[in-house]
Amino acid sequence: MLKATRSNTKIYLIGSKKSEILGSKLPCNRQVLSTFFYYHRTLRKTIRDSSRAVIKEVKTFWSKARIPIREEQHAIAKLEKLHGSWNLLKKSSKRKSATQRLKEQNFIDTLEDLFDIAHADALTLIKIEEDRNFLIAQREKKRRGCIMGRDKVLHLKECKAEKRKKEYQLRCEREEQRKYTNSSSEFVSDVLRTSTDLGSDSSYNSDNNFSISSNYNKQMPEKEKVQKRKKVRGTGSTSLITPHLAATLDRANISDRKATFIVTATLQSLGQNVANIPLSRSSLRRARQNARAKLSTNIKNNLQAQGPFIVHWDGKLLHPTIKNVTDSSSNDEDFAKDQDFKWSYPLQNEQKKQKPEEKSSQMRVPLTNIAKIADMTAIQDEIQGVLEFAEKQLEVIQPREDYREILELLIIFLGGTPPRGVRFRSPGALHHARWMAKILYSLKLWMFRGQFKLTLQEEKALKDICIFIIRIYLKNWFGAPLPIQAPRNDLKLLKQLKEYEEKNLTVSQIALEKWKRHLWYLSDHLVALAFFDMGISPEEKERMVIALHENQGEAEPSKRANIINLQKPINGMTIANFVTTNTVFFFRNLGIDMEFLQMKPEKWAMQKSYQDGLEIVKNLRVVNDNAERGVALIEAYSSTITKNEEQKQCLLQVVQEHRQRYPDCNKKTIVKPFDF
């Protein structure tokens, strides 16, 4: 028994896991990997989080040795590369060939070597010869030398230098405060009052202005006058750019230069004399930055955190900005020439070349005949159910306009009439990442196929995809936002695609192969959502509880389910087949008490632990639309208003909050008070 336990905890080629790095030398590869596996396997952290935690410990040793190190992201990449090398060897660990044994021995020989994260120019940057020699010795085999106690003499020098630096900063702050205090507040108020009086006096002329300015100039030293003018300018700009105005300019994606033009023209249209109002691009920029930072802080402070948060990591390849495509910028010019742009032209664009009367005669299709154009024989027995589903979905507020459009098209396609009447919108952008756009395009293409020529093969393929959309895809699409039902719906779709082989083998095989790579909610962790699904029978939930204790999960579970490992036919699969011992981590990560699992499923709804868990799960977002909106947000604001990363984060928060509070530009919406 003890031997089995040791074999389970021992890491291939590495040995046992270590919760921390100990010793008086700089960490070696074995120490780093041992601690990495503790974070990764014992604490169940991701590879990136485990690497970051280990590098944080490693940096402590290098800091004590006073050796400059490389950037953290490069150190993390080095550790992940080392782990990747180990992983490649582990995959071939069952082989007994001489080549495999040689590779293993070479890897073992490097485990006691220094995990070197020193700066590339460390030997040049190090000023103390003893520290330089220590680094050279640590890079040798067996890492000669060790880190001793603190150098008291050097530490005393550093403390004195830090003290002098703080005293200097304090003197600078006191000097700035003294200058500000000595500023004549009376002079500032006189200037503002004089500017106001002169701006409203119709008999004012340039000679009077000169004499007044001269009087003030005689009263004050030149240096003090410059300070007063700067004070007036700063005060006016700050009060002019209110938080509401700053957030609105950010929402509209207005740059600082454009904002200067807009604000100036707006003040002039309101009858203000802008000559007396300090306006400049730099002052507006500073005022917007300050307002943006304060709004971001308020948003964070007002955030009410209830339960755990889910962070969705997503990526987007942003389009490169082509600057100055001239003969001198050959790289940009080549990039511009080599682009292969593929355009998709809507139907009506082709008709613009024709005469109006020809266009009218060709596009005149009686709307009452559109339903007859579509061949309904293949789906005759399902029409009524699909129509009722679409009409019911239209009663719900849809998150996007194309969701509603596809429901209306579906009703028209099946011979019904949507609540808003029969209407057709021009086709929009067609992108591989937006399957919804392909659905819209396919339905319209089929209903208007009489307006242009299609080959028999194209018409058959178009018909097949439309029938697949109606029979299989749409109901599952609109059921995707339901988090609790996600595992059941995914398994149901898997079975539907398998059964669809009897109707269309080609479409079924292609869709099934694609869907097997998207079984996220049948993974070891997320399948736990099914415990809160009222659509699953108590008997099935009992089998799920048994599987939770008996089905042994993998040490490194996949992020999505692999049905090949189940070795069962798809039609015979149940939710319990996907539940493993790893499923408990879902409850632990979300802080859900598992006490209700000890009861019969019929009594779960009466248990407080189940009710609390149900409330947490109901608030989860399981669709990709939120992430897509976030990607679209950073695309729109990545390089327009600011390039400062801290300001960019504040900008995204302010814009997102402004969009939520002011979703449209109707008057009843925009007159709402600005209170965030």
Automatic annotation (TrEMBL):
Q: What is this protein called?
A: Uncharacterized protein
Q: Which PANTHER family match?
A: PEPTIDASE M17 LEUCYL AMINOPEPTIDASE N-TERMINAL DOMAIN-CONTAINING PROTEIN, SNAC DOMAIN-CONTAINING PROTEIN
Compositionally biased, Low complexity: which spans?
200-217
Region (Disordered): which ranges? 198-236
